[in-house]
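hey so u asked for the seq, here:
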Amino acid sequence: MSLISQWVDYTLEATGMDAVDALRAFFLLAAATTFSISIPTSLRSRFLAYGPRSTSASTSTSSAPPSAQNFSTESKGFLDYLATLQVPHSYFTHFYVVSVLSSVFWVAQLLSRGAVFQAIASRVSEDHQRHSMSLTQLVICCVLLAVQGSRRLWECFIFAKSSSSQMGFAHWFLGLGFYLAAGIAIWIEGSGTLLTKKLTIAHLQMTNAPSLRTFFFIPLFLVASGLQHDSHHYLFSLKKYTLPEHPMFRGVVCPHYGAECIVYLSLALLAAPQGEWVNKTMLSCLVFVAVNLGLTARNTKRWYAQKFGKDSVQDWWLMIPYLY
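ran it, structure tokens below
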């Protein structure tokens, strides 16, 4: 216990933040870093593009005029070296293995008031503890996040196709960090309640009438989850990479990305502490998801334009019709 506490204390002291603010900062900093990398073509093509998109991106970079590649030879050599640090694209499965294991771990910690929970929850400021989620909210949100991770893990297995595609090591490492952080983010704004009231198995029995918030946002979560699953199933059914013709893809490049953003939006609203309209930690989590998927959707649209012609997707939305 003392070793864990010391590590948490050292980390938070170095940042000058409490646990909640440090978690929010992680998501926002990760989003800002990813967005910054997307601006220079030389960085975007090396570190953000993966799978089939990486081929076209690297080709366009190598064929760009010298004025667009104004890095020194040493800088380009170093960037090229970093770009070679890759892992198989199939490692995406690791994200959801971590997500599911994280959900199981934190449920066990919350029920037992374990050492890791105590080390983090006791480092939440009194201000954040005063505005806390209820036990009902905590149970609902933790279950829904576990459902999301479990469904995506299941899809990784049943929709798996053999591929030689790669993704950057940094992308993989950041993804693992995101899902570990999301497992904490889903409950940390309920730490004030958890420190004063013991969560038990009995709280898993939902006997209370649903609030207006749960009545609206749980169905929203389920609909978005279903739409994402249908999108993944359709993409898996394609014999080869072709321009999608499914109704959900009509005029939208990546509707499954938009659905995932709605999943995290519904969690951010469901997990709003007392007196708040949104859970700011989960909202920060959503910012990272939206930035990461938005940039990937933009690369996908660029790839479609190169492969099927610019006019084929010129007027298409990236993720959500009439919004983005």
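Strands lie at 86-88, 166-168. The chain is about 70% helix and 0% strand.
lmk if thats what u needed
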